[in-house]
Design brief:
This protein is an alpha/beta fold. 51% of the residues lie in helices and 13% in strands. The chain has a five-stranded parallel sheet with strand order 2-3-1-4-5. The longest helix is centred in the N-terminal third of the chain and has 15 residues. 35% of the residues are buried. It binds shikimate-3-phosphate (S3P).
Length: 180
């Protein structure tokens, strides 16, 4: 089994994922980091030089490699859940958690990261742009097995919510989908 963290840019997938993996003594796999390492360049540069469709293709291939049946926490890029192929891979062995946050919070958090790190916000790093993207993506994100409202929680508290779920009987209703 693995846990897949999904949600918008700035929702805390990488920070929570790293901590959770440490706590569980599971592997941590950040899909974007793996792509950057393998391509020897940044996600921003890939968008700039090769375009978004090229990136989405790399992302699909990387997810296919990382979402295998092992004990790991996977942090997916914000757009990954919007592709059916990725979704099937996430849910084959994975329990999917949406770290939900309001656009205002997301903007505050992405503003703290280096400028240009998020190519989809490069020209318009505004609350409106984030709201637009979130609106398009919500139907996909809301298919997650668990949704955590993170606005008033710190990284440790989000991690604890996920740990609680892992210990609770509710988890027994989760089944991977080997038919996928
Ligand atoms: C993207 C989010 C980014 C990265 C790429 C595209 C998106 O990852 O995969 O810039 O489509 O929302 P984070 O969600 O980790 O920032």
């Amino acid at each position: 089994m693995h846990i897949v963290l999904i949600g918008m840019m700035g929702c805390g997938k990488s920070a929570v994922g790293r901590k959770l993996a440490r706590k569980l003594a599971w592997k941590f796999k950040d899909v974007d980091d793996w792509i950057e390492k393998e391509q020897k360049t940044s996600i921003a540069k890939i968008f700039e030089t090769k375009g978004e469709p090229f990136f989405r293709d790399l992302e699909k291939k990387m997810i296919a490699r990382l979402a295998v049946d092992d004990q790991s926490v996977i942090a997916a890029g914000g757009g990954a859940p919007c592709f059916e192929e990725n979704w099937k891979r996430f849910t084959k062995h994975g329990f999917v958690v949406w770290l939900k946050a309001q656009p205002k919070k997301l903007l505050e958090r992405v503003m703290k990261s280096p400028h240009g790190k998020r190519p989809l916000l490069k020209d318009r790093m505004t609350q409106e742009r984030i709201s637009e993207l979130l609106k398009q993506r919500e139907p996909f994100y809301s298919r997650a097995h668990l949704t955590i409202e993170t606005d008033d929680l710190n990284t440790d508290q989000v991690m604890e919510r996920i740990m609680e779920m892992l210990d609770s009987p509710a988890k027994n209703y989760w089944r991977g989908n080997d038919n996928l």
